[in-house]
Amino acid sequence: MERLLVLVRHGQSEWNLKNLFTGWKNPDLTEQGVEEATAAGKKLKEMNLTFDLAFTSDLLRAQHTLKLILGELGQEDLPTSRDQALNERDYGDITGMNKDEARQKFGEEQVHIWRRSFDVPPPGGESLKMTAERTLPYYRSDILPKVLEGNRVIVAAHGNSLRSLIMELEGLSPEEILKRELGTGKPVVYRLDEDGKVLSVEDLAEI
């Protein structure tokens, strides 16, 4: 029985392009983001991968990415679950702020701490640790059991919600996961054993 899990970060969004902290705000994909998502679908099709179930966040950029991928696979009607548990990290008071402007206002070091520490949230927002505390229970209760049943599952979400899943899948420390970069629109393909342990991982950003 194949146990397949594919994680993909949404394509470039309008706020990615503007270098803004996006969080739970809801911009759509840019033209480049549409191209990235479409290319992801083509790559998965080349690998002869199809899916039984899809999961995505409550945000448009992830949903649009998934729609474009499934369109390339001819699976537009795939059963799909949407949940806020897979939303991007909430950046709180710095949401919508340009990252360079934030550095000028709060200082380079402070912004770096907010962005790259595991458990220090920006004012009014979430740390990566807090993001994982809502993302991982959903993964364990809703996504992983479907994979272990033999369903081929794709998850389209966000850099930090997916980092939470990758941290669990690959057994990474907080320090290690902070160094893990996820390209926009680049699928990561996992094959799991009957216990949910990773047998193989293929990062399509490296192909």
TrEMBL record:
Which keywords does this Swiss-Prot/TrEMBL entry list?
Answer: Gluconeogenesis, Glycolysis, Isomerase
Q: Which residues form the active site?
A: 10, 88
Matching SUPFAM superfamilies, A to Z?
A: Phosphoglycerate mutase-like (SSF53254)
Q: In which pathway does it act?
A: Carbohydrate degradation; glycolysis; pyruvate from D-glyceraldehyde 3-phosphate: step 3/5
Q: Which GO terms describe its biological process?
A: gluconeogenesis; glycolytic process
Q: Which GO terms describe its molecular function?
A: phosphoglycerate mutase activity
Q: Where does substrate bind?
A: 9-16, 22-23, 61, 88-91, 99, 115-116, 159-160
Judging by the UniProt lineage, the source's domain of life is: Bacteria
Question: Which reaction is recorded as catalysed by this protein?
Answer: (2R)-2-phosphoglycerate = (2R)-3-phosphoglycerate
Q: Where are the residues marked Transition state stabilizer as a site?
A: 158
Which EC numbers does the record give? 5.4.2.11
Q: Which Gene3D superfamilies match?
A: Phosphoglycerate mutase-like
Summarize the protein's role. Catalyzes the interconversion of 2-phosphoglycerate and 3-phosphoglycerate.
- Which family does the record assign? Belongs to the phosphoglycerate mutase family. BPG-dependent PGAM subfamily.
Q: How does it assemble?
A: Homodimer.
Q: What is this protein called?
A: 2,3-bisphosphoglycerate-dependent phosphoglycerate mutase
